[in-house]
TrEMBL record:
Protein name: histidine kinase
Native organism: Pseudomonas solani
A Pfam family: HisKA
Stretches assigned to the Histidine kinase domain: 212-338
Highest rank taxon of the organism: Bacteria
Amino acid sequence: MNQDWRRAVIRRLLLLLAVCLIAGALSGEYGWALAVGLGGYLGWTLSQLLRLHKWLKEHKPDEPPPDGYGLWGEVFDSIYHLQRRDQRVRGRLQAVIDRVQESTAALKDAVVMLDSEGNLDWWNRAAENLLGLKTPQDSGQPVTNLIRHPRFKEYFEQENYRESLDLPSPVNDRLRLQFHITQYGNREHLMLVRDVTRIHQLEQMRKDFVANVSHELRTPLTVIAGYLETLLDNVEDVNPRWTRALQQMNSQAGRMQNLLNDLLLLAKLEATDYPSDNQPIAVDTLLQSIRNDAVALSGSRQHRITLEADASYQLRGSEAELRSAFSNLVFNAVKYTPMAATCASAGGATNWARTWRCRTPASASRANTCRA
């Protein structure tokens, strides 16, 4: 209410008071005159308030306000203008929401919004096709109740979403989906799900090609290596000019066999999607066993191998595969490190021993491999 309306209200009150005083002077009852005047003004005010309440309760969006007089007419008009402005703002916001929903509905990728507890808030049409979500009965349900794969439950609960997760679709095992979750706002979640079936098929074709080629090359290479070994075992019956060539051929054949074995091992590891023997492994016990084997392998070559490992650290994985990875590094270090040499100096002979250390620093959460 502006300053002019304040003056108008004050003038009306003063006018009412003057009329009451004149009526009291004529009748000789000032008290009754003031009471009747103020009561009438109060009754009129209450009637206007009831009209306002009825209009706010029953009016339609485009229905104009009731006619009012004085201050109440200004109140009716102000409320009406505020409502119209609020309707325009809500219309613009609803248009933006509708546009966002239309654009996300047109996406081939699924978009799912989750609250801080992991319950479903909203999803687009692609989520219904890829994940089997149903509207509206799935609204408010925990996402782990609808996507029951154990890897997804572990991925969601650990709250480490830097890497995406590939899983089969819960509605079609032939579809391969990639899940990526982003946290925003008050620990709410935005989950994007993409169909990567084609990429997965191409990757599987590559794996199958490497495995098949490695397997097919293994037989002819074994035959070639066998004949080369036979010729070298009977080298006295071979022309001396071919001896060096046969030795080089045998060496390269052995190298190719090692490469094929590595390729076959790689194909085997890639074919294992989620190892069944995935479990926490005590790093210190595993490395201590490998150290003992390395000492036995060193024999009389005088290598000194020490181990510093924190007993509280564990690695989650396959014990056989972890042992293979660590032992390959340690055993190669032992095999390709020359035996201790004796060096002469002015002070006499000094024995130099090569030292290999395998340690897990206190600041690390996983075991480091051996280093010189």
